[in-house]
Every structure is written in C-alpha cells, then in structure tokens.
Amino acid sequence: MKNNWQIKASLFLNYFVFAILLNSVGTVILQVQNNYGVPPGEAAVLEGYKDLSIAIVSFLLSSFITRWGYKNAMLTALGLVALVCFVVPSVPGFWATKLLFAAVGSSFALIKMSVYSTIGLVTNDQKSHISLMSFIESFFMVGIFGGYFLFAAFVDDNNLQSTAWLNIYYVLGAIALAAFLLLFSAPLDESASKGESGRSMMEEFAQMFRLAAVPLVLVFVLCAFFYVLIEQSIMSWLPTYNQEVLRLPTSLSIQMASILAGSTALGRFLAGFVLKQFAWNRVLTICLLLAGGLVLLAVPLASKVSGHEISGWDNAPLAAFIFPLIGLFLAPIYPAINSRILSSLPKHQHGLMSGLIIIFSALGGTTGSIITGHIFGLLGGQKAFYFSLIPMGILLVGLFYFKRLQDRFTAA
Length: 412
What we know:
By secondary structure, the protein is an all-alpha fold. It has 20 helices and no strands. The two termini are 31 Å apart.
C-alpha cells in the first residue's frame, strides 16, 4: 500500500487525458459545421461514434478485463490513443473525426473500467472510496476545462474553414504518451480483483447479465443513464449554443463553455469533502433541485441578449456566465452513485459492474446529444435546454428508489 500514491497519480493523469479528448466532441461538432458544412443533426453522430464504441467495447471486454489486468488494459488504451492523435492531423475530414472518436471511445472503455476497479484496490472503506472517486472525477472536469482553452488556442476566428485546429492532436498525443510512461512505471497489486478462477468466458458473460438483473443494479444503471443524458446534452451543445444563441465568436464560444467544466470540477472537488459529512441521498436531491431551478432562471436570460458585438469575456452577456454554473449542482451526482454501487459489491465484481456503468453511461450520452442536436435543428437553441428538465425529474425519482434498495441490499 505504500506505493499507492504512484498508481493514484497515474489514475488522475489517465483521466485527465481522456477528459480532453472525449469532451472535445462539443468543440468538434461546432468545427465540423464550420469546416465541412455538416448540419447539426448529422454532426451529432460524433457523439454516437464515441459513446457506442465505449458501450460495445465495455460489453465485450468487461467480463475479460480482470484476466487481462487493469494495468495492461490502460497501457493498451493510452498507446492506441497516442498513435491515433499523431495520425489525425494528416487526414482532415469528417470521416476522420468519426474514426478518431471511435478510437477514443474504445480506449476510454478500457480506461474507465480499469480506473473504477482500481479505486477499489487502493481504498479500504466506503468513505475513502467515495472521496477518491469524487476527486478523480473532479480532475476529469479539470481536464475538460483545460481542453476548451487548448482547442480555442488553435481556432482561427478569421478563417472558419481552416483545419489548423487539428494540430492540437499533436499536443494531446504527447500527453497520452507521458501518461503511458507514468503508468508503466507504477506498481499495482491486482490479486484482490481475481475472484473465482476457472470460469469460462460464457460464464463470465452470464454473471454480468445476472448482476444487471439485481433490482439495486437495475435502478442504478437507469440513474446513470439519465444523469449522463443530462450532462452530455448540455456539454456537447454548449459551444454551439454560445455561438448561435448568444452570438459569441467561435473561439470565445469554446472558451466560455469551459465555465461548465470548471463549475463541475469545483462541485466534484467539494463533494469529496461534503459527502464525508452528510447523507449522500440528501445532498444529491438538493443538488438536482437547484440544477432544475437554474435552468428556469438562466435560459430565459438568453432572450435578453442585446445583439451588440461581443469581443471577449469582458462584454459577454450574463447568460453566458450563469447557465454553465449548472455543473456545480450536477457535479456530485455521478461519482456518488457510482461509488455507492461499487462499494456495495465485492471487489472481484467491480470489473463487471464498471462495464455496466460504462455501457449505460455511453448510451445515455449518445441519446442526450442526438436528441438535443435534433431539437437545436427543429426548435432552435433557445428552447433546446428546457428539455433537460424532463430527465432531471426522472432522475430525482430514480435516486429515491436507489437509496431504498441500497439500504435493503446492505441490510441483507
């Protein structure tokens, strides 16, 4: 256990790299519309390439990953992503961005299953588990926050057709390579994850389906699905919302979307402390109610934009600052429910459970982004984000039943 700090540092950096790559999808959706004339509904399929590859790889490999080894899986993912990032700038085109997100999604499935499972190996109780989970997820948002500024630095506002922004992938490839080297040197004892030996692959798959049929797990995956649907629909389309509705320049639209990532990172960082002191279900219920209230408060502000020329942060409309603060309230929900379900199960089932988390999260992200993209095209961005109130209401009910079932499961 004395070397846990090294593997923990590696987990943070791995998540940082993939935070930038995965959540650049909102920026890339905006750029393929500008560069290649792709309509919003078609641009939204990038979310599908990312999330469906995550879901497929998670489904196929979640029962195998403990045999493969969490460290080996993460090294494979980082190596693949570094290679793809170095190649992409040489082959600009909408098809290339599809392949990029398919590769990133497939690799992230390995990373997330491994990171979630490794947390259980390097923590000793539920409170330390939920705390480390929150801190790692907050660092994920720090990566997203920094990613907006990295991408914005490569965007040319004076030539929207320029593909020079693709050079950012050389930088991201170098970061992935550094993460690979750090992980390679980090020791990790995976013996506790092995569980029962001698099971065939079909038996492993059967165990995953049996786990999914447990009522507690079933309600959990529905909660995870609707949470990611909410988060990804807002995150993926916020740069487009900033440009089309608030009339911000392209680079500023991308930069100001970082407020959402920053507020989410802060929310998850604070949750690492708050959830040690207060009942998790009460904290999450209050956060969800506040998030819904902020939608009703902030979205109408967009209709009051004056139409004057906006040149920077200093004269951007109030709505551009207020709405992204929703991340502060949504932030604690995902890591908290993930931690509660994982810490309720034996460690040898964490790989299977992580696979289920990733599958349903990926499906939620794709569903949210595609629905929001079509609403943008049909009704306009002014009305699109009101629809987030519907899954918020469903999630509120789901959290209530998740808490009741977890109490029964723990008592049993």
